[in-house]
Amino acid sequence: MTTVVKIAPDELKTASTYVSNVYDTVVKRNPNETEFLQAVKEIFDSLIPVFAKNPHYMKNGILERISEPERLITFRVPWVDDQGTVHVNRGFRVQFSSAIGPYKGGLRFHPSVNASIIKFLGFEQIFKNSLTGQPIGGGKGGSDFDPKGKSDAEVMRFTQSFMTELSRYIGPDLDIPAGDIGVGAREIGYLFGQYKRLRGGYEAGVLTGKGLGYGGSLARTEATGYGTVYFVEEMLKDKGLSFKGSTVVVSGSGNVSIYAMEKAAQYGAKVVACSDSNGYIYDPNGIDLKTVKKLKEVERKRISDYIIDHPEAEYYEDCKTIWTVPCDIALPCATQNEIDKVSAGILVSNGVIAVGEGANMPSTLEAISVYAANQILFAPAKAANAGGVAVSALEMAQNSARISWTFEEVDEKLHQIMINIYRESVNAADEYGCSGNLLAGANIAGFIKVADAMIVQGII
């Protein structure tokens, strides 16, 4: 049984003042970086009891240090399209924390990418990676390049230009990127090929999410989606519930969404809706995953084409309204802040019992407050979607040992990691007086491991 720490009111007041002052400094240093400040505030607020009980974290300036990246790199990415026109995009890599291991985090190629989004993702990655129990620090990167509508040759030229600059700052023991939105198997292949050309050697461990033929891991494709469902299933089991017999809505139709749908269906759920950036489909008979995989993984088409093969399904133009579809379990797997206060209220009104975040920070702070006020089971992103980076760490281990594990071996390790993350989050929430609050529990559990490592390594 977890022992609950006792905190005196004056200790809590001192810690609250400290956290507030550090947050004010972060705001002044990072004006207008909305996403980054949102991520910082969410984590800071939940750590107040930790600082109250452990004042040595304040003495060592842990919060001041952990909220400032060790390194933020921006660079120009020039490339030529198929018509011979020169384009220039902006590239980013934030190396946020190496306290427990080399920087680890994906690359996002999307028009919305800017310093704020990269920093929010990198900051979240610190705690997510810590929760996995693997020796990996926090990092993230990407570009405002949009691969949609580009030919393979255009994507190749862009990724080669991007890696030409990025290669100076990464390595198997320094910083190991992976994929994210807009960066799939095609992009990883081009990135790895260019890195290999520049370095003149075969350093398989420099990127994860690689193809199976050149150092990739079985179950990596499925890992984030499967891991989200594994985590949510543990959360449901504690309440005597299950995916079995439930109705599920999953936003997105990319890698995370597809395999969250697949595992939810394997657990006996009926997934009735999914989306892309244009709109969403509703299929009362349950989404046909084979059709979604064909459209998104093979043909690279829009989700609206689903109704060609399934005329009984309905397509709606506005992807944001997917949360009006009644469901028992909502799995937001598309992008940040896709569920706001209004959408959260609609989910609650329609009887949702659980929300599991497969994307990074898909719920606004106001939406999370709605979940809490209505006692909705909530699996926060940094815990629930940690499966992808967990298996990336397992891919790194296989690369280092020059071995390959079977799908079943990797999946079993992934399942156990997600169970461990859930239990650690529950125990941390119980210990610091916020039982049932998995968001606070995940933040606390992830933070303490990194903070302790920072202290023993001195002021660096």
TrEMBL record:
The record marks 180 as: Important for catalysis. Substrate binds at residues 104, 125, 128, 179, 392. It holds the Pfam family ELFV_dehydrog_N. This is Glutamate dehydrogenase. Homohexamer. Residues 217-458 form the Glutamate/phenylalanine/leucine/valine/L-tryptophan dehydrogenase C-terminal domain. The keyword Transmembrane helix does not apply. Belongs to the Glu/Leu/Phe/Val dehydrogenases family. The active site is at 140 (proton donor). InterPro entries: Aminoacid_DH-like_N_sf, Glu/Leu/Phe/Val/Trp_DH, Glu/Leu/Phe/Val/Trp_DH_C, Glu/Leu/Phe/Val/Trp_DH_dimer, Glu_DH, Glu_Leu_Phe_Val_DH, NAD(P)-bd_dom_sf, NAD_bind_Glu_DH.
